[in-house]
Amino acid sequence: MKKFFVGLGALLVSALIVIAVLFVRFDIPRADLVAQYGQAPSQFLTVPSGAIAHFRDQGNREGPTLVLVHGSNASLHTWEPWVAELGTDYRVVTVDMPGHGLTGPTPAADYSRAGMVAFLKEFVDAYGLSPTDGSEGFILGGNSMGGSLSTLYTLEHPQDVSALILVSASGMPRPAEAEVPIGFKLASSPIFSPILLYVTPRSLFENGLRDVTVPEDFVTEEMVDRYHALALLEGQRAALRSRFAGSNKPETLFKRVGDIEQPTLVLWGVHDPLIPVSAAYEYDTRLPNSTLVILEGAGHMAMEEVPGPSAAAVRTFLAQAFAPVAEGDNAPVEAEPTSVETE
Q: Total domain count for the chain?
């Protein structure tokens, strides 16, 4: 009997070693990831709170400024297709939020929506993007989590923002038909989230990306490798756990969006399973000065899935939003949502 228990113990130890080798992932030093993903055109700026913001400033420096904010678990790389599409006419500034990308964990360790908005304000002020002497503000856009951050930023700092672009933005009450990726469920679970500090399979990112996007060839090995590697940046997983623990609190942002006066583009993939298109109509209803564009052939990340049509929608929106208004033509006009074919 003693030999049996000794053998069983050895078997369990061996199983644990195999599990550790196959599934446990150690943090990747920041310097290693900067060398891989932080080279030019990337830049780094220390903001007053001590955070080191990873950002890119690309495109036409003489054109109107677009400041773009990525979604949950993503990074500024998500906007590179729009840089290619819009950079000839617009200055495009992208930045990694706290607990994401190469900005990573911050001294304040505040990964709440309010904390990220405070970080974004620090960044735009420190980098000189805030309007001065009555000059026009920048155009602010965001995808998913970045959309809700952009919405809150516009409410908190309306003088900074001349127009708003929401791409499958969070912030509305979650529709009943929304599908939540398994990775999000695990990160929100008080039981399983501690395990993610050590066990973070690459498959979570691959499956998560495939679940929320449409084009069959959209998700690449390089993309999954980047998502996975940046999630392993030292301290990043603890920041993720903190952020998702806070995300369980009731949301109230949707009650305030009616106060946004800036022209707003509500841009959505018709096949978005994570934040279904019903949320787009809810945003459009609540916003007093909005343009709704629904994109065929796209899911949750339209700026990457269909960069050409989504960027074209941005160009059209901004041309109309800033077109000179003839005398007597400034009355609001109700418009039907635009559906754009991409296939």
A: 1
